[in-house]
UniProtKB/TrEMBL annotation:
<dbReference type="InterPro" id="IPR016161">
    <property type="entry name" value="Ald_DH/histidinol_DH"/>
</dbReference>
<dbReference type="Pfam" id="PF00171">
    <property type="entry name" value="Aldedh"/>
</dbReference>
<comment type="similarity">
    <text>Belongs to the aldehyde dehydrogenase family.</text>
</comment>
<feature type="active site">
    <location>
        <position position="294"/>
    </location>
</feature>
<dbReference type="InterPro" id="IPR029510">
    <property type="entry name" value="Ald_DH_CS_GLU"/>
</dbReference>
<dbReference type="InterPro" id="IPR050740">
    <property type="entry name" value="Aldehyde_DH_Superfamily"/>
</dbReference>
<keyword id="KW-0560">Oxidoreductase</keyword>
<protein>
    <submittedName>
        <fullName>NAD-dependent succinate-semialdehyde dehydrogenase</fullName>
    </submittedName>
</protein>
<dbReference type="InterPro" id="IPR015590">
    <property type="entry name" value="Aldehyde_DH_dom"/>
</dbReference>
<dbReference type="InterPro" id="IPR016163">
    <property type="entry name" value="Ald_DH_C"/>
</dbReference>
<feature type="domain" description="Aldehyde dehydrogenase">
    <location>
        <begin position="57"/>
        <end position="517"/>
    </location>
</feature>
<dbReference type="InterPro" id="IPR016162">
    <property type="entry name" value="Ald_DH_N"/>
</dbReference>
Length: 524
């Protein structure tokens, strides 16, 4: 059975969209994006998604909706309920009402729900990939990879649900015993981003379900459809009403502000920009909420003179081009030993210029559009600034004309340390390369940022690898590896990249409180 889309079959929706989109935004090697007007064939069903509150789908109290657009050609994909503050509070009411019952549900039952949801996500990978590609642009291959990643959080936390434990010990002085237990923190608010619309949801929802927490999820307004599809799957997997509530809104600040001010909320987890993260942390102080923040990055990619350059270029392609560069873990700047920098730049440019830019659903597309024009304009500004600061564009360096927000995969070498592109998060397919002469200089350059999420190190010298990994001010290091993300590993950053860890054995701890009971034991 396919996803049911509030009475209409999402499979039918996806099929009709897929047929309609065949040929739209086909890549054209002359440099333009050809848009084949398929309006006559589109015949889009008026997909309207609603809010999920207490297990029921309902309209926003305001009756308002907003449009979700395909970043690959600007087509409207759906109208989505635009929740008001009252809708947000109703969702929290539902989460609060479900909390006690859910916390009392046997861990095995919570794990089994997650396991069934894992199976369903895997089974529906193609449908989900089409929805995701349409709403955020990346190629279908990228969307499928994200869906596998997303599903694995459910499988991982299905296994963690039954391993929550405490301890029992004797007080050193005698006279009492100490019983330490773990309990769910309570109702949570999750604010998820558009760049990984499903995985950033499952990375929070999975451990919350495993730990026995209820939740309100507010997905990014650009990408609500993947989250709705996930809500349908979790309901089908047997998640009780009210445990997961989904609220889409364009008034994010108002709705999340009201929830953060509500003393019934006990935790907030946010993935997104450092700027918004700071504001959420400030607001969460009033009720002293448990907080997890997964914020911006500015990952350095270090290539030492002894690195295997083939592996370094493979790693660079992954670290830079995964998700079209729209990832907080993306290699943002390349610091390469001066003796190998030209060779590295030439090899990377060869690989980048081979990539096919096109609509995410078109056959052969490697690189889809950026999510919106503001993102593309920022990329253009950063490239222009890098060139003003002496950078030489080796490949790319321009937008693709035509509908959609496309930008060519770009390599710039000789970027000087004062260029903005080495300090600001690019969130696009641009690899700026700067050089260093020795290890200390490489580390100084890598740490010269307010961010501290991920870093990548390429070297064949094990001593150096460990030394450098220890000195880098980041939460995650890829050692001769271009991807650090793994559901079994603790994902998270330091400095302005936030705090808290998602995934791994640490992931579930974010959703658990520790309580201890002192038990008097008569001594005679
Ligand atoms: O963009 C943030 C998350 C990226 C990831 O989980 O790999």
């Amino acid at each position: 059975m396919g996803l049911a889309w509030h009475g209409m079959s999402a499979a039918r929706y996806v099929r009709s969209r897929r047929a309609a989109l065949a040929g739209v935004g086909a890549p054209d090697h002359s440099g333009r994006m050809t848009y084949i007007d398929t309006t006559a064939q589109l015949a889009l069903p008026a997909v309207q998604t609603r809010l999920l509150v207490g297990g029921a789908w309902r309209d926003a109290a305001s009756g308002r909706t907003f449009a979700v657009e395909d970043p690959g050609n600007g087509d409207e994909l759906a109208q989505v309920a635009d929740a008001s503050v009252a809708d947000g509070v109703a969702a929290l009411d539902a989460a609060v009402a479900a909390q006690a019952g859910w916390a009392a549900t046997p861990p095995r039952e919570r794990g089994e729900i997650l396991r069934r949801a894992f199976d369903l996500v895997v089974e529906r990978q193609d449908e989900l990939a089409t929805i995701m590609t349409l709403e955020m642009g990346k190629s279908l291959a990228e969307s499928r990879a994200e869906i596998t990643y997303a599903a694995e959080f459910f499988r991982w936390f299905a296994e963690e649900a039954v391993r929550i434990s405490g301890r029992f010990s004797a007080a050193p002085g005698g006279g009492s015993r100490l019983l330490t237990m773990k309990q769910p923190v309570g109702p949570c608010l999750f604010v998820t981003p558009w760049n990984f619309p499903l995985a950033m949801g499952t990375r929070k929802i999975g451990p919350a379900i495993a730990a026995g927490c209820t939740m309100v999820v507010k997905p990014a307004s650009a990408t609500p459809l993947s989250m709705y599809a996930l809500g349908e799957i979790l309901a089908e997997a047997g998640l009780p009403d009210g445990v997961l509530n989904i609220v889409t809104t364009r008034s994010s600040g108002d709705v999340t502000g009201a929830l953060l001010a509500d003393p019934r909320l006990r935790k907030v987890s946010f993935t997104g920009s450092t700027e918004i993260g700071r504001s959420i942390v400030e607001q969460s102080a009033a009720n002293l909420l448990r907080v997890s923040m997964e914020l911006g990055g500015n990952a350095p990619f270090l290539v030492f003179e002894d690195a295997d350059l083939d592996k370094a270029v493979d790693g660079a392609m992954l670290a830079k081009m995964r998700n079209v560069g729209e990832a907080c873990t993306a290699a943002n700047r390349f610091h390469v030993h001066a003796s190998v920098a030209d060779e590295f730049a030439a090899r990377l440019a060869d690989r980048m210029s081979d990539l096919t830019v096109g609509h995410g659903t078109a056959d052969g597309t490697d690189v889809g559009p950026l999510v919106d024009d503001a993102t593309r304009e920022k990329v253009e500004d950063l490239v222009a600034d890098a060139v003003r600061h002496g950078g030489e564009v080796v490949t790319g360096g321009e937008r693709v004309d035509g509908p959609g927000h496309y930008y060519r995969p770009t390599v710039i070498k000789g970027v000087s340390r004062d260029a903005r592109i080495l300090r600001e998060e690019v969130f696009g397919p641009v690899a700026p390369i700067a050089t260093f002469d020795d290890e200390d200089e490489a580390i100084r350059a890598a740490n010269d940022t307010e961010y501290g999420l991920a870093a990548y190190v390429f070297t064949r010298d094990l001593d150096r690898a460990l030394r450098v990994a220890e000195r880098l001010e980041v939460g995650m290091v890829g050692l001769n590896a271009g991807v650090v993300s793994n559901p079994a590993a603790p994902f998270g950053g330091v400095k302005a990249s936030g705090f808290g860890r998602e995934g791994g054995a640490e992931g579930i701890e974010e959703y658990l409180e520790t309580k201890y009971v002192a038990i008097a034991v008569p001594t005679d």
